[in-house]
Amino acid sequence: MEARRKWIQLAVLAALIAVLPFFFPSGYYYRVGALIFVNGLSVIGLVILIGYAGQISLGHAGFAGIGAYACALGPQHLGLHPGLALILGAVISGLLALLIGRPILRLKGYYLAVATLGFGILVSMLLTNERALTGGPDGISVEDLGLRALLRDLGWRISGGEFWYGASGIALLVGAWLALNLFDSPTGRAMRSLHGSEVAASTVGIDVARQKLRAFVISAVYASVAGSLLALQNGFITPDVAGFMHSIEMVTMAVLGGVGSVLGATLGAAILTLLPQVLTVFAEYEQLVLGAVMILVMIFLPQGLLPSIARRLRGRGE
Amino acid sequence: MDALLQFIFSGVTVGAVYALVALGFTIIYNASDVVNFAQGEFVMLGGMITVFAHQAGLPLPLAALLAILATAAIGVALNKLAIEPARGAPVVSLIIITIGASILIRGAAQLIFDKQLHRFPAFSGDDPIRVMGATILPQSLWVIGGALVVFFGLWLFFTRTLTGKAVLATANNRVAAQLVGINTSWVMTLSFGLSAAIGALAGVLVTPITLVAYDVGVGLALKGFAAAMLGGMGNPKGALVGGLALGLLEAMTAGYLSSQYKDAVAFIVILAVLFVMPQGIFGKKSTERV
């Protein structure tokens, strides 16, 4: 991918984030938008792990849980500013990924899937069972970031929804920019070479284990920051954020939109975040529809939505 | 000592269910290299269909038979509609397809049946049997016996029948199996049907003890998957041993350490085993050809 395409993708994303609010009929849509951006951020992390390096994880919600609870517990117990707690969560997630990544990433395919799944379940179980610290399954409240009050003092009054729409949008753009930079960097190329063949990659001198570990740590930090932002904007968090279903949701979003593509992953996040909102009227059918969408996309658009559409458009143009 | 025996009884009962789910995973994995995350839903369907057929007036054995046959048909449909069209897709896609199928089946069950917990009467009454100071439910014996019968039945099927050998041949090398005239597509269909039937049987056997609801499948699938992995994916003996080991481990943890963390210890042990033996206890050592 040449530099021009990177900037086009970022420009498209930025334009969408900036223009969409003009079409919002009510303040509620800012909330949904912010949720899409936060999900998009964690899914971009998975693009690096699954799409670039070709490794799977069914436990990344565990890192989102660590980020989220860092923001809930840091200010309460350590007196940290919520913003610093976000960074602390990211550091803990990164270190943990570094620690468990080495043995876990030796595994392949389904074995890697069950190991990461086990990790995610352990984290969610800790968050659920340590009631004294985490508030247990009922969840825990999260202190406000305080940035909006600061803006108000500076004379800029915006609603919570608007603030978080902007903040998550910026976070998503930064995340996308970093991921797109990585794509063309020597590290990114090394990671992507694993996807094709690990044996071939190692014969040309790539340290396979090291690149896998890098992708794992980076994606863990993405998930952690996304979890923190989710906790901060909701002001409340439950252990569900680290649950198995959330991990599955994240992987599905990534693969649905197109796991090799940053923009596609964001599209996948948007669709799966919107689906339950659209289906609230038919709440009983939500699972039925979600399951059917997952199966149909994988069968008919195995590359994911965006790459498949892009290929079709290109085919017509030529 | 009594307590230990009691924990062993409950561990073996739960372990037998995990083993049945793990055997279901193993059969499909062998035939198609697919890990079917909807395996837990087969157990749920076995329980739920029996409950509702029984309530509708069918005698229990007939209701159970109907449940097993209906679930087998759903398994075959899953293969035909979702797995076969995606042949050759990468592991991530297959994982998403079968998880999608499990969500779909769960959603349908919630619509067609309901969200309540259900049970039907145990086959041989609810009076516990006393053994050396500990007690065991007659239904537990049904569960354990069921798992053993299925295991030996499968062993006979795979080693003594031509069809069973065809399944093994397909598992070993799909193209070679096709070359010697094995209908591999029929083998896939058979495997999904068989695996779904075994799952449903597990649901029928265990519902009087653990009750059934539309959402019991997720937990069972995770445990069964873990058990199959613990034993080494694709190995029926591994599925049996992995299932029983996992059940015992959980019962011991719940009994001696903490019932809250019984699920956690299972996953910790699995991680530890995978770190030391990346192919599971009975898994084949694989070397990559360059």
TrEMBL record, chain A:
It is found in: Cell membrane. The keyword Nucleus does not apply. Keywords: Cell membrane, Membrane, Transmembrane, Transmembrane helix. It is a multi-pass membrane protein. Coiled coil: none annotated. CDD domains: TM_PBP1_LivM_like. The chain crosses the membrane at residues 7-24, 30-51, 84-102, 109-127, 163-183, 254-275, 287-306. Its main location: membrane. InterPro entries: ABC_transp_permease, LivM-like. PANTHER family: HIGH-AFFINITY BRANCHED-CHAIN AMINO ACID TRANSPORT PROTEIN BRAE, HIGH-AFFINITY BRANCHED-CHAIN AMINO ACID TRANSPORT SYSTEM PERMEASE. This is Branched-chain amino acid ABC transporter permease. The lineage of its organism: Bacteria, Pseudomonadati, Pseudomonadota, Alphaproteobacteria, Rhodobacterales.
TrEMBL record, chain B:
Its main location: membrane. The keyword Disulfide bond does not apply. Pfam families: BPD_transp_2. Keywords: Amino-acid transport, Cell membrane, Membrane, Transmembrane, Transmembrane helix, Transport. It is found in: Cell membrane. It comes from the Bacteria. The chain crosses the membrane at residues 6-27, 60-79, 91-113, 140-158, 179-205, 211-231, 238-258, 264-282. Belongs to the binding-protein-dependent transport system permease family. LivHM subfamily. This is Branched-chain amino acid ABC transporter permease.
